[in-house]
Specification:
Blueprint lengths: L1 H12 L1 H41 L14 H16 L9 H9 L8 H15 L7 H18 L5 H19 L2 H12 L6 H22 L15 H35 L7 H15 L8 H8 L5 H20 L7 H22 L7 H17 L2 H12 L5 H18 L7 H5 L8 H8 L13 E2 L4 H10 L5 E5 L5 E6 H4 L6 H6 L2 H4 L13 H11 L3 E5 L7 E6 H15 L5
Parallel strand pairs: 1-2
Antiparallel strand pairs: 2-3, 4-5
Helix pairs in contact: 2-3, 2-5, 2-6, 2-7, 2-9, 3-5, 3-11, 5-6, 6-7, 7-8, 7-9, 8-9, 8-16, 10-13, 10-14, 10-15, 10-17, 11-13, 12-14, 13-14, 14-15, 15-16, 15-17, 16-17
Length: 585
């Protein structure tokens, strides 16, 4: 009996089996969190938006439509207590901060993130704010994965896998799209760097979350799509290619507007708690004439997919939704940009489809088909994640025939967007800090540490007018090395001198007394500034094979502020790696 039980015990002790088991659990709770999230959003929408709509008799039209902004403003007023109690954790678009926590800060996410995201996003979206729940559900799932990882005391790579598994489960359950959930986590959360072991965890979590969601909501696709086929491939393939390029341009415009509006609200002289209310007022004002921009806009998107959208209306909604989303999230409302991206893409595709179908009615599909393809193409271009967009659209529509045009437009849209703007909507803040998050965790860590935080400020330097004998005295008293900045009469660095530079005259006392430091020092000097990163420093260390680099105020004004040693840079990097838990299993 013991012999038979031994393989079973070994199987349960196997690391891969434990990961699979934990990923299954994460998928189940992520699926449950999705149900709770959607229920709370619906509850807020019914109790505040719909009931408020009735109480204010907005549906009667006339002057009463002017009361519409009061509904999203009410949601932002209710957001104030959460914002005051948890500053920095409630307001605005938080997905870029989430990526920072996962990829640069060890993945330690508090469980309260789950509750805060559900409540704050429900108050924003449920009352009519222009945002989506898809990004936040990924954060909710990721927070659950992090909580599970913390419970089992894992760190580093394993923590990232559990967070990504939670994100995959959350997105899969929200869209009823398990494959898209996997690629969302792989492309966007793991930045395209993952191993087969982590991929298995994503698949299992995504599948289990979808099972939970389908058991509660059913297996119907998120967006019903009328029968679709390529009417004339020779005509439509070039048209879809052109549409992909246009959507890439719109995606870049969307990203620029999003961050411009956020920056304007950041410097706006107004109490922080009043900014979301002002944003809600502005969005509500737009919604008086175009109520389609409120919430996720899915109701009107379904009409467009059915071919019932008006070209002029769809065209205007492209830009109104871009502005409304930027105002909602830039002012401090809570939510994500996934749903707005789907809406904007649908309107862009519908507009394009409406025009080409009017010009070439017998050779092009219904405008709804172009709207469906536009959904995926715009999402791909805005997030720089084409695989996620391709599989998401395929699973959301349940239509395989749409896969060829969506592949084409998604790739072209992404290529155009990346060519014009290196950053996706999620990575702008990283680039502003000089961090390329896609370069890898280690490089990102090195880019996040400034030279000024690592330098030795107590530096021995010598005048270029001093003689070599005086230099040897300094060498004999040096505590930290044999490489010194040489300065002129004004105190600015003109070169560096090392023991190597004086070896040739060590045995000539007369020459030691007559030769000046300025005559033997090296004038072509590599320098760093305090604002440079350790990544910049290590490139110089490796390219020149040196151990120390002077640090000056600026390349133009060479006041010496310190010295950076290779060993100190490596030590600072190692400390940061340990602090963040990166590289540990």
């Amino acid at each position: 009996m013991n012999d038979m039980g031994r393989p079973i015990r070994r199987f349960f002790r196997n690391e891969q089996f434990r990961v699979v088991l934990i990923a299954t659990f994460i998928g189940v709770i992520a699926g449950g969190a999705n149900i709770i999230f959607r229920t709370v959003v619906d509850l807020v929408h019914q109790q505040i938006f719909l009931r408020g709509h009735e109480l204010l008799a907005i549906g009667l039209g006339g002057w009463r439509r002017l009361l519409l902004p009061l509904l999203p403003m009410a949601g932002m007023v209710l957001l104030i207590p959460l914002s005051l109690r948890f500053p920095g954790e409630v307001n605005g678009y938080g997905f870029n901060k989430f990526l920072r926590q996962v990829n640069l800060e060890g993945g330690i996410i508090r469980f309260r993130t789950v509750v805060l995201k559900i409540l704050s996003c429900s108050l924003t979206i449920g009352t009519g704010g222009s945002a989506g729940v898809e990004g936040p559900i990924a954060q909710v799932g990721g927070a659950l994965g992090s909580t599970v990882g913390q419970f089992f005391r894992v760190s580093g790579v394993r923590m990232k896998v559990y967070i990504a598994a939670g994100c995959a489960g959350g997105v899969a359950a929200m869209f009823n799209a398990p494959i898209a959930g996997v690629f969302f986590a792989a492309e966007i959360i793991l930045l395209g760097t993952y191993e087969i072991g982590s991929f298995a965890a994503l698949v299992i979590s995504s599948a289990m979350a979808t099972v939970i969601s389908r058991a509660y909501y059913g297996a119907a696709p998120a967006f019903p799509l009328p029968p679709y086929h390529l009417v004339s491939p020779l005509v439509e393939i070039p048209l879809y290619s052109l549409m992909g390029a246009i959507i890439g341009l719109i995606a870049v415009f969307h990203i620029k507007v999003f961050y411009t509006v956020r920056d304007r609200f950041a410097v706006l002289v107004l109490h922080p708690q009043l900014k979301p209310i002002l944003g809600a007022l502005l969005v509500g004002t737009i919604a008086i004439s175009f109520p389609q921009i409120m919430g996720n806009g899915y109701d009107y998107l379904v009409e467009v997919l059915d071919g019932r959208g008006l070209v002029l209306t769809m065209f205007l909604l492209i830009f109104l939704k871009i502005v409304a989303t930027a105002i909602t999230l830039g002012s401090g409302g809570a939510g994500g940009v996934f749903a707005p991206s789907l809406f904007i893409g649908g309107m862009a595709g519908g507009t394009f489809g409406g025009l080409v179908h009017h010009w070439l009615p017998g050779q092009t599909a219904n405008p709804g088909a172009y709207a469906a393809v536009g959904i995926g193409a715009f999402l791909a271009a805005a997030t720089h994640a084409p695989l996620t967009a391709i599989f998401l659209l395929f699973e959301m529509t349940g239509n395989y025939r749409i896969i060829i045009p969506i592949m084409l437009t998604s790739i072209i849209g992404t290529m155009v967007a990346t060519r014009l703007n290196h950053d996706s909507i999620d990575t702008v803040d990283f680039s502003r800090e000089g961090i390329d998050i896609h370069e890898g965790r280690e490089t990102a860590v090195m880019r996040s540490i400034k030279v000024g935080a690592v330098i030795i400020e107590d530096v021995d330097f010598i005048s270029e007018e001093a003689n070599v004998d005086q230099l040897l005295t300094i060498f004999s008293m040096a505590q930290s090395g044999f490489y010194f900045p040489v300065v002129d009469a004004s105190g600015r660095m003109t070169g560096v001198v090392s023991l190597q530079d004086v070896k040739s005259i060590l045995h000539d006392k007369e020459l030691r007394l007559s030769a000046t430091v300025g005559s033997i020092c090296s004038r072509k000097v590599l320098v760093l500034t305090p604002d440079d990163t350790l990544y910049d420093a290590m490139l110089l260390f490796d390219s020149k094979g040196i151990e120390e680099i002077p640090v000056v105020e600026s390349p133009e004004d060479r006041w010496v502020v310190g010295m950076l040693k290779r060993r100190d840079a490596i030590a600072a990097y190692n400390r940061e790696i340990v602090r963040r838990g990166i590289g540990e299993k």
